[in-house]
Amino acid sequence: MNQRENILALLRREPYEWMPVEFSLCPSLVEEYKRRTGSEKSYDEYFQFPWAGIGDIRVQQDTSQYEQYHPNLKKGGVIDLWGVAHEPGSEAAKHMTYMRCPLKGIDSLAEVKAYPLPDFAAGDASHQKVQAESIRARGLAVMGGMQCTIWETAWYIRGMEDLMMDMMSDDPIAAYLLDAVTERSVIRAQSYARAGADLLYLGDDIGMQRTPMMSIDLYCKWLKPRLKQVIDAARAINPNIVVLYHSCGHATPFIPHLIEAGVDVLNPVQPESMDFREVYKEFGGKVSFHGTIGTQTTMPFGTPQEVKDTVFAHLEIAKEKGGLFVAPTHLLEPEVPWENILAYVEACREYRP
């Protein structure tokens, strides 16, 4: 098996040969990686991650048109493709930004409809197939990444409180904005599928640290059918595409609905918010999992041996039915010792399915 064949078998709960590794490093840990290894390779290549991503549809967007929505933007702030402004964080956390939501406080549907959203249908996707072929030639699985698929993209534009109120009061603004974002997500998902992506990485944070972010009824009314629309659109082109879905926090009550919508792999199963043993007991064999190693607890504050013990314990839980790609649950922050990263890698390398 090559890396692509191995990871696809693992995620499909089929026999696989080894446990791959995957994680994300914050900027300071990227510098630590370079210092420790002396390698000129990217860390995903050095540690042999099983997949690589192809670029999204390229859209020509004049972000200056959004400046009217951000009259007091902090120096160093930038405006993204969707018109959301991001102001720089502290020196200690340069990768963190403060978001400014351009449609926050606007109550007019006409004004919301007048807001310029990116036109992915008119974008350039010519690079995607070329990139996919290059990645597959390296023996890796091809990833199409579009986390912040519907809910997060919409509330980044509207503001979470405003969009929640729109949904709870059946305000037409909610339907318009969620439909507009969904339409664009469908176009992007179809484009990834046509390019030959093996994996489609979707996601919207719908859990908080200890509770769901919204009621199940609200989720099923507003978000579940739109997520299914995106997945169905990709599967109409490639029925075998593996769909991953990311949600931080306590997402356990949503799992049956994510499965019904077509999700194959749940990420990250944050152990500070979800009990993996209990989750696997109920849903193992019905969905696969990616993550489970805590980045609020084990990775920054455990010993290297505790990291390895946790990796082995979680893999043991999933041994009978399979379907666990064990990995840190989120970005590894500056507090994570380099020795703990190596301990995670070593545990995966030592494990035998």
From TrEMBL:
Organism of this sequence: Candidatus Merdivicinus excrementipullorum
Lineage: Bacteria, Bacillati, Bacillota, Clostridia, Eubacteriales
Name this polypeptide is given: Uroporphyrinogen decarboxylase (URO-D) domain-containing protein
Entry GO MF terms: uroporphyrinogen decarboxylase activity
Pfam families, per database record: URO-D
Uroporphyrinogen decarboxylase (URO-D) domain: residues covered: 141-351
An individual GO BP term: porphyrin-containing compound biosynthetic process
